Amino acid sequence: MYIKRHDISQLLLNTLEENKQDLKDQFSKTKDEIGYFILDNVLPIELVHQIFDSFPNLDNTVKKHTLREHKHVGYQMNEFNTLLEEVIYAFQEKTVVDKIAKLCDIEHLEPDENLYAGGISLMRQDNFLNPHLDNSHDKDINRWRVLNLLYYVTPDWKLENGGNLELWPEGVKNEPITIESKFNRLVVMATHDKSWHSVSKVRSDRIRCCVSNYYFSKSPLKKTDSFHVTTFRGRPSEKLKNIVLQCDSFLRNSLRKVIKKGIRENKHQYKK
Residue 171: helix, strand or coil by DSSP? Predict the structure, then answer.
């Protein structure tokens, strides 16, 4: 069955509306640290299974493997099953963006049709994402990145499988909040200069699949926000790695302050 983004967005809107007070309360209670809300049972189960089945094989994705991260991503969406592009852009329909803006009490949210650092991600056994702050801006450095939307679609994913979202509201030196990458779960989290987050190492031989979007604004969420590249740290147990990643982040950030758009274009964007 082929379903278009408008129809998916209507289903999204219905679930958001049904849970609006709970979602507003979740975000409001957490916004002084890392604002976020969790929404389960987002779309009809049959449709979510179709979305999961539409994900490409790992061989058809871009592998990212450094000290900072180990994962597979896809962003050139016309190379994949059409359903994946439709569900990604359903989250960018104006009605959905406006609804989430109200839930998070943020004005003038804008989606990102270029999928800069967005798209789909797949994580296999031993894949991980170290604690980090997302890049502060869009690809043209015109808008502030303010919300991160993560929609998980792997059936029967369990907490013990790893590959779970971790939020570090008290900084990387303290214990994180673990949010299970549960099937048919949407996590919406704020992106600012205190929103440290990571993904725990995958312990299962299955693939954890996620649909990712970012929303932007002309203004930052916090007055303390300043321009920065994606900034990584080591986990509390990774002392040496933390030093290396701090140096790496300092050098990359210093370079970008001199050469605003970087030495070369970031390939992680949808070239339509």
Answer: coil
